[in-house]
């Protein structure tokens, strides 16, 4: 039986952190057996903010290496770089004719970017959702495993798909956000200020390439307090977060012990942090080391990106043929 198609894009910016791992990557890894997965590095999207393109190649390699180190299997999924699949650009051109300036200007992520960098409101930024729709529709995908912040973009992808279907031929299924059966772990920053971040708040964020020392230092500095005064108190958010992290990397016995200490007002946060740091190092170090090896293995990386591009292009060119036919173009 044909498996259902899943697409997701990863931006090649910054180093991945624990929030990315438990929020997205772990689920990608779980999906690879059950679905026909197309995962790619969105390098064209990153151009919208005018990065230093000389550094882009390095970021792409880093992201690929990290994803593989976390368990994505390039033999099972199509793991590719967006710019290796020119079919996406052609579909983007067609979809741009179905996208209206007014609706694009209303997108919250666009408005944010305009506010943050008023000097770089380029057309690529405005049509970011059209390119994203092309990434998805080029594979006629049904599911897109993304976070809440991408809902609006997905809704636009559905609108473009519907408009195309209506104007030409019923061709694209409506793509929906993939909902995981288990709730995603929400991981906060260690200092209690917001979420872990790729670009801000480095001391509060555990990166997948942090050294053992950095991991230990960051966890030691994590925000705590004098401890609860009454048994079975509710945990403040920053303490809850330390327990969330512990649940992800420590054994059940360890978690139970500290839960019990907390509930009986005997908790020693120094001990909790020591244990958490030890278990976190055991979790992150192998990923870091594996990613470093892959990142420097040019031969392997070019082999797997070629394999990924071939798989993606096979599907993409099939779609594009259907699109051209529906539009009565070139045949
Ligand atoms: N916009 C997504 C993000 O910011 C990245 C992305 C680009 C994407 N194209 C996609 C995600 C297609 C899912 C499907 O994270």
From TrEMBL:
It catalyses: tRNA(Trp) + L-tryptophan + ATP = L-tryptophyl-tRNA(Trp) + AMP + diphosphate + H(+). It is found in: Cytoplasm. ATP binds at residues 11-13, 19-20, 147-149, 187, 195-199. The keyword Aminoacyl-tRNA synthetase applies. The keyword Cytoplasm applies. GO terms for molecular function: ATP binding; tryptophan-tRNA ligase activity. Its main location: cytoplasm. A motif ('HIGH' region) lies at residues 12-20. InterPro entries: aa-tRNA-synth_I_CS, aa-tRNA-synth_Ic, Rossmann-like_a/b/a_fold, Trp-tRNA-ligase, Trp-tRNA-ligase_bac-type, Trp-tRNA_synthetase. A motif ('KMSKS' region) lies at residues 195-199. Its EC number is 6.1.1.2. L-tryptophan binds at residue 135. It holds the Pfam family tRNA-synt_1b. Keywords: Aminoacyl-tRNA synthetase, ATP-binding, Cytoplasm, Ligase, Nucleotide-binding, Protein biosynthesis. One of its GO terms (cellular component) is cytosol. One of its GO terms (biological process) is tryptophanyl-tRNA aminoacylation. PROSITE patterns: AA_TRNA_LIGASE_I. Homodimer. Catalyzes the attachment of tryptophan to tRNA(Trp). PANTHER family: TRYPTOPHAN--TRNA LIGASE, MITOCHONDRIAL. Belongs to the class-I aminoacyl-tRNA synthetase family. This is Tryptophan--tRNA ligase. It comes from Rhizosphaericola mali. The lineage of its organism: Bacteria, Pseudomonadati, Bacteroidota, Chitinophagia, Chitinophagales. The gene is trpS.
């Amino acid at each position: 039986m044909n498996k259902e198609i899943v697409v997701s894009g990863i931006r090649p910016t910054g180093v991945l952190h624990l929030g990315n791992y438990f929020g997205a990557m772990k689920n990608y890894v779980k999906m690879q057996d059950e679905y026909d997965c197309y995962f790619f590095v969105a390098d064209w999207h990153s151009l919208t903010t005018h990065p230093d393109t000389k550094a882009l190649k390095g970021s792409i390699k880093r992201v690929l290496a990290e994803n593989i180190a976390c368990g994505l299997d390039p033999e099972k999924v199509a793991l590719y770089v967006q710019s290796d699949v020119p079919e996406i650009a052609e579909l983007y051109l067609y979809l741009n004719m179905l996208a209206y300036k007014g609706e694009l200007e209303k997108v919250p992520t666009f408005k944010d970017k305009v506010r943050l960098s008023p000097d770089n409101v380029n057309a690529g930024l405005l049509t970011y959702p059209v390119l994203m729709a092309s990434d998805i529709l080029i594979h006629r995908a049904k599911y897109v495993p993304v976070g809440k912040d991408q809902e609006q973009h997905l809704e636009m992808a559905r609108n473009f798909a519907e408009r195309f279907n209506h104007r030409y031929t019923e061709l694209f299924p409506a793509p929906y956000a993939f909902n995981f059966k288990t709730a995603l772990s929400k991981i906060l920053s260690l200092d209690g200020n917001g979420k872990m971040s790729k670009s801000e708040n480095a001391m509060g964020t555990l990166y997948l390439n942090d050294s053992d020392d950095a991991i230990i230092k960051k966890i030691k500095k994590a925000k705590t307090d004098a401890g609860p005064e009454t048994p079975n108190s509710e945990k403040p958010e920053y303490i809850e977060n330390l327990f969330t992290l512990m649940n992800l990397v420590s054994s059940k016995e360890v978690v139970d012990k500290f839960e019990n200490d907390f509930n009986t007002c005997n908790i020693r946060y120094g001990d909790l942090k020591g244990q958490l740091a030890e278990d976190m190092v055991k979790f992150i170090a192998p990923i870091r080391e594996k990613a470093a090896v892959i990142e420097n293995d040019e031969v392997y990386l070019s082999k797997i990106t070629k394999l990924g591009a071939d798989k993606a292009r096979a599907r993409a060119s099939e779609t594009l043929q259907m699109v051209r036919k529906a539009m009565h173009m070139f045949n």
